[in-house]
Amino acid sequence: MNQKWMKSEGQKWVDEKIISSEQLDLLVARYPSSNEQNKPSRVLPILASILIGIGILSFIASNWSEIPPLARLALLLVIMTGFYTAGDVFTKRGNDSLGTSFNFLGIISFGASIILLGQTFHLSAVDARLFVFWSLPAIYYLFRDRKKLFFLLVAVITVGGQLYSLSDYDQFSYLLFFVFIVSIGGYVFLYPQRLQTNLFTIGLSAQVLMFLLTEEINLLWFFLFGLSLYTEGLWAEKSVFKQAFNRFGTLIGFAFAYGLYFWMTNEFLSDFDLPKTALYLPVFLILFAAALYAKRHENLIMHVCELLIFVPFFYLIKVSDPLIVGILYLIVMFTYSGLMLAKGFKNENRPQINLGIVLFLLVCLMGYFNLAWAFMPKSIFFLLGGILLFILNAFLQRKKKQILKNGGPHNE
């Protein structure tokens, strides 16, 4: 059932007083949109148009040297204009799938045209400005049509362009980062949805990491970025931001704790540099205090335990044996994953339980590797490890099913 048609025709019935506006709303709600029912069929035109576009561009690229320069320019303009025109025609006719597909190809051909024309006229790039220009039509169609495909394309162009800038020019593009924040961040702020918010958080984290690598800043500052994400999630009002920031902040903190445990218990400390205490600790204390204040009306002791994953215990290697500090990180990770499981079971929160199970199994796996790798025969090591993980996972999954047997609150 096409809901657009139903609303349009239904409004005429309301105007003619055949039905009331309340009855129209009930009729529209009763029949799901055909767009939702035919999602698989909507993917096929997109894939078909992408393959056709790739074929056309590949043919042009393979015969590029045989085409005169002005003919190259005209050919690229015709192809790009054709894609955009076809996209707008199909969109106006109500065929959003084909319209989106051709507009997507128009954006791709625009970027390819910039690259190929640069080669034709021997233009050399000194930064990632190409990707800024390439992202502009994608941003336009993103805010005009609000399609996930355009959102993904903008994210790929901006984050991929940043990666290209890092690998080819060894520099961080602040302009591209600004475009990412304004376009992707602005869209997520205006139209918050779970998938887009998660992609924005991943892209932001990737760009911050690339910035630290490019400027040769100690990577332990990324650990602090995880805490800032987590804290921002505590203060965010919209649930999509809370979930994305808390989840990815937690994953960053846990990943660093995981790496620090492995690093400190395996004698890899010869090149281990610590961030400057005078800068790092004040920022950490401010974020830690902000996180505590955001949860001031809840169980404070429980919240402090949750924040232990972000505490910079690595400074203790100045006054203690690194092995002890590594074991401390292992204890913190066990505590954190156990608390997440307990909290998930208590609140009957399925995503939290699943994340807690994954983190708990990862900690068990790392502890098992460090304990048994040196003295146990490798065949027995892997066999026993797999059996133990299967048993532990089966126990946790059974516990989860018992907790959620009545459905629980739908926090998925």
TrEMBL record:
Record-annotated membrane-spanning stretches: 43-64, 70-90, 102-122, 128-143, 150-166, 172-190, 197-213, 219-236, 248-265, 277-293, 300-317, 323-341, 353-373, 379-396
Matches recorded under InterPro entries: DUF2157
Protein's name in the database: Membrane protein
Entries under Pfam families matching the protein: DUF2157
Domain DUF2157 as annotated: residue spans: 11-140
UniProt keyword terms in alphabetical order: Membrane, Transmembrane, Transmembrane helix
Keyword Secreted included in the entry's annotation: no
Organism, as annotated: Fictibacillus barbaricus
UniProt keyword Iron present: no
